[in-house]
Amino acid sequence: MQLPHCVGKMRDAASTITTEGAAVADAGGQPVVALERLSRHFGERTVLRAITLELRAGQTLAVLGRNGAGKSTLLRILATLLRPHAGSVRLFGEPLPRQAWAVRGRIGLLGHEPLLYRDLSGRENLTYHARLYRVPAARVEEVLAAVGMRQRGDDPVRSLSRGMVQRLTVARAVLHSPELLLLDEPRSNLDPAAGDLVEPLIGRSAAVTRVLTSHDPQAALAEADLVLALAGGRAAYLGPPDGLAPAKLRSLYA
Fold first, then answer.
1. Kind and range of the H or E element at 109?
2. Residues of the chain whose pLDDT is less than 70?
3. CA distance readout (Å), 55 to 186, 194, 210
């Protein structure tokens, strides 16, 4: 059976996880995320250009911009799935990509791809990931219950609705209690009730460092401590949410 895209790198992370990892988060007070003139291109098209920022433990960064602005590319770089072409990236003080192996087990990625085997059940998928991350089996039932999927946990993923798959994806992303959550449109395909279910896991009350993208800028601003607005690959705005003028926000999506 072929691995879902990116699962191989997640498997590599398993060998680096220790019980001491969470205790040393943000040791010495360094930023959880530190970017210095980060740039990335695809062919001749520059997607990210000279992005510089710092994000401290427990803070939330909202990344805004129209389709193609570079939001998902930024998250994939932070998830160690893409390499920067210029500038520097540090997570928990470790430089990427050289020390990517040291931080993968401390990251939870909720992206556009669920990273689940379609022919396996949700419970089987989570059990597989629990083994990768050396997480106790009881944690599988805990996260299934948290996202309201215990009753459907034995159904093949291919038989589930998009909303149910998204709930399982949330469970997979938080299974190993990551210190940094990378959330790309995390509430897509979720109805209001499901959104309420996952809020304690991926919302502000999760009390972890978060980088999130959203097509609902007002909701993202309400969650953010820091906002990065991307336009043409550049930082059109970087600062607190209350400093982003309504006219500037509207221009990002014009």
1. strand 107-110
2. 1-28
3. 19, 28, 9
